[in-house]
Give the backbone structure.
Amino acid sequence: MPPPFVHLWHADLAAEHPAWGPTEVTLSETERDRQARFRTDALRQTYGRAHGFLRAVLGPYAGQQPAELVLAAPVLRGKPALPAPAAVQFNLSYRAGRALLAVSNEWAVGADVEALHPMTDALALVQELFSGPEQAALRATAPGGPWEALFYTIWTRKEAYAKALSMGLSLPFAEFSVLEMGADGTPWLAAPAGAQLLGFAAGPGHRGALAVLGAPAGVVPRHFHFPDDLGAV
């Protein structure tokens, strides 16, 4: 058995390369039906490339051809999974232009990627879904770029943690914190008990985060890029 690992795969969904055609034809009938329901070509392309990327990367871990993968959603929670006795856990996050896929053979993982742009509903999200310390840190941050950078740092970490738990927005977001305020008023990044959270730049104009649950302290993910690193693991 291989030693425990956490792998984080990056994909530039906007880049044109020959790998997209072969990966998109591996989508299941259910995925193709869902793809067809998107209203624009851009949305259909994003969905097809993201899920083709998922299958192309996940197939070797599962020891299956990408088109043969069965990705099932658990009955009680909506995080897709490979049927037992699959040897890996995974989580996919994508936005227009960018995708992240976290894979581990030992621990539950969650990933989130967000495009860095002003959000019209950011303040409403902060008031509803951010903890007291998180709100205090944002109030003490200069408006504009610094505020938005901190907002996305917090938001991606909260999203990744909720996804690792397979709960998404059903988790009471305001009741846990990924940032605390020190006695001197200086904010510092934190994580709920039992979780490790890592934030990073996820390509130009994007912020990413990874959550790992139940791992010993100091786990460092290994980063890969699609399609250049296919076959590297």
Q: What stands out?
A: The CA atoms of residues 126 and 161 lie 17 Å apart. Helices lie at 20-24, 29-37, 41-62, 122-129, 132-139, 145-164. The chain has a mean pLDDT of 92. Residues 41-62 form the longest helix (22 residues).
